[in-house]
User: Fold these one by one.
Assistant:
Number 1:
Amino acid sequence: MTQNNKEINSHGKIVVKFGGSNLKKKEDIFSLIRAVEFYNQPIVIVVSALYGVTDQLINGLNKVTLSESAICRIKDELIESHRQVIELYIKDSTSRSKVISHLEQRVEELEKYLRGIHCLGEIPEFVADRVLSYGERLSSLVLAAILNERQIDTKEILPEDLGLFTNGEYRNATVDFALSEQAVSQGLAGNQNYIIPGFYGLSPQSKVTLLGRGGSDYTAAAIARCINAQSVDLWKDVPGFLSADPKLVDNPSVIHQLTYNEAAELSYFGARIAHPRTFEPAEAKQIPVRLFNINDFTPQLEPITVIGKQGYIAEHIVKSVTFSDDFGVLKLQGAGVGIKPGIMAKVTGSLTQEGINIKSIITSQTTINILLSRADLENGLQVVNALGLSTVHQVSTQQDISLIAVVGEGILEKPGIAARVLGAVSAHDINVWTISAGASNVAIYFIIDRQEQETAIRSIHEALFGSPQVHVSVAPQNQEDYYNDHSYAGSLGYVV
Ligand code: ASP
Ligand code: MG
């Protein structure tokens, strides 16, 4: 790195991300403004779409292929919901009409893509990704205007103008740091606030590519890495990471500190509090990821959970038990499948070629269990059947399952954790289908029938954490989004 780059790379700003859960009701933006003011220094803001807008666009995509009138409906709904926000926050009528006219222009851009889809009668994937990026494009436009109206000098920059590049994979792209780092760092070097729509970057061919559902967290961490930020602050409406889903367990404790690995595994296995890939760019530059609860903030900006390099081994080792229902098993059975060379390469190669993401693989001598997103299961089955592998006697799927994971530093070193967890589960006669320990240093996970999921989580939590924790510091208030946001799976639910 040249001396010049070093300087550019060390502006030490904070990247602050506000998600859809901070943008549910139009009144929520008051809290957002207050948080921005508390920083009292120039920050880089990354925003999600207003709550529900991405889902609305996904539904709209499918509708416009069939119906032309759906285009106007989508347009009107988007203008209306954003206009209501503008009207609440921008009182001056001249500025207000200016912002509304910018909003309309941006929605007209979107309209062109929707018309294209309607004419074609199908949705090319590059157009789908572009369309779905409009939720963030609209929220950033509106929020930039609101902040400026309040004398909080904020410049909006779109990822394409900033030079945030990806590997080009549609729907679920990875940020390409070699291509992005310098441009992003230079683009954000000024002494003012910036606001950037999250959720997408540009392919090397300059096409919009989405970063997966919930991808604005990942955008924030990626930008933080590019500018070597002081921290990535994720504002949520839940009290940080918890020892279990508050809907299933009465007294989950709040986790104040996690390592990057722990947070990544928890997110990957179902805790929807942050996009699982958020922690990769942060870890690359050892940037702390701090979680804040917008409903519970202090002027000292005290984070609830801090994710970083520093870890600790908890008294019970396990810090959290989590689950995901977005797993299905593709089972390949046959004597010796586990030791015959080449099978795995063929299978994984074909699945990847079909764009199917393999979430995990657990093998034995006679069975290869491939864990996929549920949405990919049928397609996966067809792909493997089409290979006609002679050593595989049966290919089947298992659908109604739940994956349960227990996560904590030290989990593999301390004997007896798996026994305790499985003991708690078997005490309720729950059958464990498959178990994996050792694939990750900080997680053990296993598969059970979905209908047993609640009982399993409760009994494991009870066995490990006992009755109410004394160190509960923040009672969960708004529990809605802890698990019940969208799926982070690659599948975006539209047909391409
Ligand atoms: N708006 C996008 C989604 O709903 C991205 C995000 O929320 O981070 O998935
Ligand atoms: Mg979100």
Number 2:
Amino acid sequence: MRSKLQRDQAISNSLPIGVFDSGVGGLTVLRALVNRLPGEDFVYLGDTARLPYGTKSPASIRQYSLQAARQLHERGVKCLVVACNTASAIALDALTDEFDPVPVIGVLEPGAAAACQATRAGRIAVLATESTVRGGAYQAAITRRRPDAIVTARSCPLFVALAEEGWTDGPIVEGVIHRYLDEIFVAGAAAAHPDTLVLGCTHFPVLAPTLRKVLGPAVAIVDSAETTAASLADILARRGLLRHDQATGTVTLLATDGPERFARVGAVFLGRPLAPADVELVDLAFAQTPSGA
Ligand code: DGL
């Protein structure tokens, strides 16, 4: 189904790149995208009013993802980056169909690629939200690349809450990590433990130093941010959509609830200070159906 805007609007390389997540987690991806493509303009939407996506049904995740993407598309974007593993796992096909010919890039395939590059023995643990784990998309994306891989997937919904709260270290965080991961990394024979851990949720990279402390130096910890940035650069280059006319682009931040909280917690994820005035509050109510449909 095509929107009116889509039929009328030429995709121009001067348009920004749209990025969305359920909350501030996708800012870990945005950070990598900005580092990789500093001359591009970005508009990021965190659907903070409806976070978390990861405990919702596939139908709700699809609906929320489409509404978030419509908000960005209505503003005019040359590409959409789904900076949420849950939305990438459940809604990527629906997003690709609706916004074609605008390229839509998810983070799940780049995350699976990063895990397969990092593993030595092919034993990979995926940490993600309940919906991502239940859907099995990560497991499938890894075994498609590496059929002999042994993939253990674990949903860690409390990690999302901890990350959104800005609690990234200390005894409580370490206790939660032990509770989720000891059965994978402590129980059983050490030779059977995964050698690679993929952070299959964009909220989890802020917990990486504490995961490293708990798991020790032998486990490779990877996320999809860098590989997603490489995919984005590649797709834009192939479509002639890279912009070359400015050294430094802009970053526009949108949230569906709590700009103050978004700025406070988001600064940790983005790695630079943010003020509430940097975050525009948006309402997705209008984005119920494709315009012109
Ligand atoms: N950041 C989202 C992801 O990458 C999940 C957080 C949530 O449950 O909304 O899956």
